Amino acid sequence: MSMADIRDSAPVAATGTQIDVRGLEIEYETSGGPVHALGPIDLTIGAGEFVSVVGPSGCGKSTLLKAVAGLIRPSAGGVSIGGAPITKPHSDLGIVFQNPLLMDWRSVLSNVLLQAEMRSMPKQQATAKAKALLAQVGLAGFENRRPHELSGGMQQRVGICRALLHEPPLIMMDEPFGALDALTREQMCYDLQDLWLERRPTVLFITHSISEATLLSDRVIVMSKRPGQILAEYEMTRPRPRLLDDDEHPEVDRVSREIRRLLGVTDHATTKKAS
Protein backbone atom coordinates (compact mmCIF):
# COMPACT_ATOMS: atom_id res chain seq x y z
CA MET A 1 0.00 0.00 0.00
CA SER A 2 1.45 3.37 -1.04
CA MET A 3 1.41 6.68 0.86
CA ALA A 4 -1.25 7.94 -1.55
CA ASP A 5 -3.42 4.86 -0.98
CA ILE A 6 -3.26 5.38 2.79
CA ARG A 7 -4.01 9.09 2.50
CA ASP A 8 -7.12 8.43 0.42
CA SER A 9 -8.45 5.46 2.39
CA ALA A 10 -10.87 5.49 5.31
CA PRO A 11 -9.43 5.38 8.85
CA VAL A 12 -8.54 1.88 10.02
CA ALA A 13 -10.02 0.65 13.30
CA ALA A 14 -7.40 0.08 15.99
CA THR A 15 -6.53 -3.56 16.57
CA GLY A 16 -4.21 -2.92 19.50
CA THR A 17 -4.54 -3.49 23.20
CA GLN A 18 -4.23 -1.06 26.11
CA ILE A 19 -1.16 -0.93 28.38
CA ASP A 20 -1.39 0.33 31.95
CA VAL A 21 1.76 0.97 33.99
CA ARG A 22 1.18 1.90 37.62
CA GLY A 23 3.85 2.81 40.17
CA LEU A 24 6.45 0.79 38.25
CA GLU A 25 9.94 0.73 39.75
CA ILE A 26 12.94 -1.39 38.80
CA GLU A 27 15.94 -1.86 41.06
CA TYR A 28 18.97 -3.98 40.14
CA GLU A 29 21.27 -5.74 42.56
CA THR A 30 24.94 -5.19 41.70
CA SER A 31 28.24 -5.99 43.39
CA GLY A 32 28.33 -2.36 44.55
CA GLY A 33 24.83 -2.48 45.96
CA PRO A 34 21.32 -1.85 44.63
CA VAL A 35 20.85 0.47 41.64
CA HIS A 36 17.54 2.27 41.24
CA ALA A 37 17.16 2.11 37.44
CA LEU A 38 13.58 3.15 36.79
CA GLY A 39 10.57 4.82 38.30
CA PRO A 40 8.19 5.34 39.68
CA ILE A 41 6.39 5.33 36.32
CA ASP A 42 2.67 5.81 35.69
CA LEU A 43 1.66 5.52 32.05
CA THR A 44 -1.35 4.47 29.99
CA ILE A 45 -1.02 3.64 26.28
CA GLY A 46 -4.37 3.36 24.56
CA ALA A 47 -5.37 0.56 22.20
CA GLY A 48 -3.93 1.28 18.77
CA GLU A 49 -1.81 4.18 20.02
CA PHE A 50 1.77 4.71 18.79
CA VAL A 51 3.88 5.98 21.70
CA SER A 52 7.58 6.78 21.53
CA VAL A 53 9.90 7.09 24.51
CA VAL A 54 12.98 9.32 24.28
CA GLY A 55 15.59 10.13 26.90
CA PRO A 56 19.31 10.10 27.66
CA SER A 57 21.36 6.91 27.47
CA GLY A 58 20.98 4.79 30.59
CA CYS A 59 17.69 6.39 31.67
CA GLY A 60 15.76 3.11 31.63
CA LYS A 61 13.94 3.27 28.30
CA SER A 62 14.80 -0.32 27.39
CA THR A 63 14.17 -1.40 30.99
CA LEU A 64 10.65 0.01 30.71
CA LEU A 65 10.05 -1.94 27.50
CA LYS A 66 11.31 -5.17 29.07
CA ALA A 67 9.11 -4.65 32.13
CA VAL A 68 6.03 -4.12 29.95
CA ALA A 69 6.90 -7.30 28.03
CA GLY A 70 7.19 -9.21 31.30
CA LEU A 71 10.90 -9.88 30.78
CA ILE A 72 11.87 -8.06 33.99
CA ARG A 73 10.15 -8.43 37.34
CA PRO A 74 9.11 -5.08 38.90
CA SER A 75 10.59 -4.10 42.25
CA ALA A 76 7.39 -2.17 42.91
CA GLY A 77 4.17 -1.45 41.06
CA GLY A 78 3.14 -3.38 37.98
CA VAL A 79 1.97 -3.58 34.38
CA SER A 80 -1.34 -4.70 32.88
CA ILE A 81 -2.00 -5.41 29.21
CA GLY A 82 -5.61 -5.54 28.10
CA GLY A 83 -6.60 -5.44 31.77
CA ALA A 84 -4.58 -8.56 32.69
CA PRO A 85 -1.64 -8.17 35.13
CA ILE A 86 1.72 -9.18 33.64
CA THR A 87 3.43 -11.68 35.92
CA LYS A 88 5.50 -13.56 33.31
CA PRO A 89 6.78 -12.97 29.74
CA HIS A 90 3.87 -11.78 27.58
CA SER A 91 3.53 -13.78 24.38
CA ASP A 92 0.82 -11.92 22.44
CA LEU A 93 3.18 -9.31 21.03
CA GLY A 94 5.93 -8.71 18.48
CA ILE A 95 9.37 -7.43 19.49
CA VAL A 96 11.96 -5.74 17.26
CA PHE A 97 15.43 -5.00 18.64
CA GLN A 98 18.29 -2.93 17.21
CA ASN A 99 19.85 -6.17 15.98
CA PRO A 100 17.29 -8.14 13.92
CA LEU A 101 18.67 -11.46 15.29
CA LEU A 102 18.23 -13.39 12.05
CA MET A 103 19.43 -16.97 11.62
CA ASP A 104 21.98 -16.94 8.83
CA TRP A 105 21.43 -20.59 7.88
CA ARG A 106 17.77 -19.86 7.14
CA SER A 107 16.41 -17.98 4.13
CA VAL A 108 14.65 -14.63 4.45
CA LEU A 109 11.26 -16.31 4.15
CA SER A 110 12.24 -19.03 6.59
CA ASN A 111 13.37 -16.41 9.13
CA VAL A 112 9.97 -14.73 8.95
CA LEU A 113 8.21 -18.09 9.21
CA LEU A 114 10.09 -18.88 12.42
CA GLN A 115 7.31 -16.91 14.13
CA ALA A 116 4.72 -19.25 12.56
CA GLU A 117 6.63 -22.35 13.66
CA MET A 118 6.85 -21.13 17.26
CA ARG A 119 3.11 -20.43 17.30
CA SER A 120 1.96 -23.48 15.31
CA MET A 121 0.31 -21.30 12.66
CA PRO A 122 -1.07 -23.05 9.54
CA LYS A 123 1.91 -23.21 7.17
CA GLN A 124 0.16 -22.31 3.92
CA GLN A 125 -1.57 -19.24 5.35
CA ALA A 126 1.56 -18.14 7.19
CA THR A 127 3.68 -18.46 4.04
CA ALA A 128 1.25 -16.36 2.01
CA LYS A 129 1.15 -13.72 4.74
CA ALA A 130 4.96 -13.69 5.06
CA LYS A 131 5.39 -13.17 1.32
CA ALA A 132 2.84 -10.35 1.36
CA LEU A 133 4.64 -8.62 4.24
CA LEU A 134 8.01 -8.96 2.54
CA ALA A 135 6.56 -7.48 -0.65
CA GLN A 136 5.07 -4.60 1.32
CA VAL A 137 8.50 -3.58 2.63
CA GLY A 138 10.21 -3.93 -0.74
CA LEU A 139 11.67 -7.43 -0.34
CA ALA A 140 9.71 -9.28 -3.02
CA GLY A 141 12.20 -11.50 -4.84
CA PHE A 142 14.49 -11.80 -1.81
CA GLU A 143 12.57 -14.63 -0.13
CA ASN A 144 15.30 -17.23 -0.80
CA ARG A 145 18.30 -15.05 0.04
CA ARG A 146 20.31 -15.53 3.23
CA PRO A 147 20.64 -12.68 5.76
CA HIS A 148 24.34 -12.12 4.97
CA GLU A 149 23.32 -11.25 1.42
CA LEU A 150 21.17 -8.34 2.64
CA SER A 151 22.00 -4.82 3.76
CA GLY A 152 21.39 -3.80 7.36
CA GLY A 153 18.15 -2.06 6.46
CA MET A 154 16.90 -5.09 4.55
CA GLN A 155 17.71 -7.34 7.49
CA GLN A 156 15.75 -5.06 9.82
CA ARG A 157 12.78 -5.18 7.45
CA VAL A 158 12.87 -8.97 7.73
CA GLY A 159 12.85 -8.64 11.52
CA ILE A 160 9.82 -6.34 11.39
CA CYS A 161 7.97 -8.74 9.08
CA ARG A 162 8.68 -11.57 11.52
CA ALA A 163 7.30 -9.49 14.41
CA LEU A 164 4.12 -8.68 12.45
CA LEU A 165 3.43 -12.13 10.98
CA HIS A 166 0.97 -13.25 13.67
CA GLU A 167 -0.77 -9.84 13.65
CA PRO A 168 -0.09 -9.10 17.33
CA PRO A 169 -2.10 -6.37 19.06
CA LEU A 170 1.11 -5.01 20.59
CA ILE A 171 4.46 -4.21 18.94
CA MET A 172 7.50 -3.28 21.03
CA MET A 173 10.53 -1.76 19.31
CA ASP A 174 13.83 -1.05 21.05
CA GLU A 175 16.00 1.33 18.96
CA PRO A 176 15.11 -0.64 15.81
CA PHE A 177 16.83 1.79 13.43
CA GLY A 178 19.76 2.75 15.66
CA ALA A 179 22.42 0.87 13.68
CA LEU A 180 21.31 2.10 10.24
CA ASP A 181 22.61 4.95 8.10
CA ALA A 182 20.55 8.15 7.85
CA LEU A 183 18.93 7.46 4.47
CA THR A 184 18.00 3.89 5.40
CA ARG A 185 16.55 5.08 8.72
CA GLU A 186 14.37 7.55 6.85
CA GLN A 187 12.99 4.86 4.55
CA MET A 188 12.45 2.50 7.48
CA CYS A 189 10.43 5.18 9.26
CA TYR A 190 8.16 5.49 6.23
CA ASP A 191 7.84 1.70 5.94
CA LEU A 192 6.89 1.45 9.61
CA GLN A 193 4.41 4.30 9.31
CA ASP A 194 2.70 2.53 6.38
CA LEU A 195 2.54 -0.78 8.24
CA TRP A 196 1.12 0.83 11.38
CA LEU A 197 -1.48 2.83 9.45
CA GLU A 198 -2.72 -0.34 7.79
CA ARG A 199 -3.06 -2.42 10.99
CA ARG A 200 -3.16 0.02 13.95
CA PRO A 201 -1.58 -2.18 16.64
CA THR A 202 -0.44 -0.58 19.87
CA VAL A 203 3.25 0.37 19.52
CA LEU A 204 5.80 1.15 22.24
CA PHE A 205 8.81 2.59 20.38
CA ILE A 206 12.13 3.30 22.13
CA THR A 207 14.40 5.75 20.32
CA HIS A 208 17.10 8.39 20.75
CA SER A 209 15.84 10.20 17.65
CA ILE A 210 13.49 13.12 18.27
CA SER A 211 12.68 13.30 14.54
CA GLU A 212 11.65 9.62 14.48
CA ALA A 213 9.50 10.14 17.56
CA THR A 214 7.69 13.21 16.20
CA LEU A 215 7.15 11.57 12.80
CA LEU A 216 5.71 8.28 14.01
CA SER A 217 3.98 8.98 17.30
CA ASP A 218 0.58 9.88 18.60
CA ARG A 219 2.40 10.76 21.81
CA VAL A 220 6.06 11.29 22.75
CA ILE A 221 7.17 10.47 26.32
CA VAL A 222 10.35 12.18 27.58
CA MET A 223 12.26 10.46 30.37
CA SER A 224 14.76 11.86 32.85
CA LYS A 225 18.21 10.59 33.72
CA ARG A 226 18.41 7.52 35.96
CA PRO A 227 16.32 6.62 37.79
CA GLY A 228 14.15 7.18 34.74
CA GLN A 229 10.92 9.04 35.35
CA ILE A 230 8.53 10.80 32.98
CA LEU A 231 9.48 14.46 32.53
CA ALA A 232 6.84 15.36 29.94
CA GLU A 233 4.39 14.03 27.37
CA TYR A 234 3.61 15.62 24.01
CA GLU A 235 0.68 14.81 21.73
CA MET A 236 1.45 14.84 18.00
CA THR A 237 -1.74 15.76 16.18
CA ARG A 238 -0.75 16.69 12.62
CA PRO A 239 -2.37 14.53 9.91
CA ARG A 240 -0.83 11.31 8.64
CA PRO A 241 0.97 10.13 6.66
CA ARG A 242 3.79 12.45 7.74
CA LEU A 243 7.18 13.36 6.30
CA LEU A 244 10.50 13.76 8.07
CA ASP A 245 11.07 17.12 6.37
CA ASP A 246 8.05 18.51 8.23
CA ASP A 247 10.54 19.89 10.78
CA GLU A 248 9.32 23.43 10.08
CA HIS A 249 5.75 22.47 10.94
CA PRO A 250 4.83 24.52 14.05
CA GLU A 251 3.97 21.41 16.10
CA VAL A 252 7.18 19.57 15.17
CA ASP A 253 9.34 22.65 15.75
CA ARG A 254 7.79 23.39 19.14
CA VAL A 255 7.90 19.82 20.45
CA SER A 256 11.44 19.20 19.17
CA ARG A 257 12.72 22.37 20.83
CA GLU A 258 11.01 21.56 24.13
CA ILE A 259 12.38 18.00 24.17
CA ARG A 260 15.90 19.25 23.45
CA ARG A 261 15.58 21.79 26.25
CA LEU A 262 14.39 19.11 28.69
CA LEU A 263 17.28 16.84 27.73
CA GLY A 264 19.84 19.64 27.93
CA VAL A 265 20.71 19.66 24.25
CA THR A 266 22.26 23.02 23.32
CA ASP A 267 21.05 24.75 20.18
CA HIS A 268 24.38 26.29 19.06
CA ALA A 269 22.74 28.42 16.38
CA THR A 270 20.35 29.98 18.91
CA THR A 271 23.20 30.43 21.44
CA LYS A 272 25.37 32.27 18.91
CA LYS A 273 22.43 34.45 17.86
CA ALA A 274 21.72 35.38 21.47
CA SER A 275 25.35 36.31 22.10
Write a brief caption for the model.
The chain folds into 2 domains: 3-93 and 168-266, P-loop containing nucleotide triphosphate hydrolases (Rossmann fold, 3-Layer(aba) Sandwich), CATH 3.40.50; 98-167, no CATH class. Helices cover 35% and strands 23% of the residues. The protein is built from 9 helices and 10 strands.
Structure description:
- With 275 residues, the chain is α/β, with parallel strands linked by helices.
- It is 35% helix and 23% strand.
- It has 2 domains: 190 residues, Rossmann fold, CATH 3.40.50; 70 residues, no CATH class.
- It has 9 helices and 10 strands.
- The strands form 2 sheets. Strands 6-7-8-3-9-10 form a 6-stranded mixed beta sheet, with helices on both faces. Strands 2-1-4-5 form a 4-stranded antiparallel beta sheet, with helices on one face.
- The radius of gyration is 19 Å and the shape is globular.
- The N terminus and C terminus are likely disordered.
Tags for this model:
9 helices, alpha/beta, six-stranded mixed sheet, Rossmann fold, 2 domains, 275 residues, 23% strand, globular
Largest sheet: 6 strands, mixed
- In total, how many beta strands? 10
Structural class: alpha/beta
CATH fold call of the largest domain: Rossmann fold
Strand content: 15-25%
What do we call the CATH homologous superfamily of the largest domain?
P-loop containing nucleotide triphosphate hydrolases
Number of domains: 2
CATH first level of the largest domain: Alpha Beta
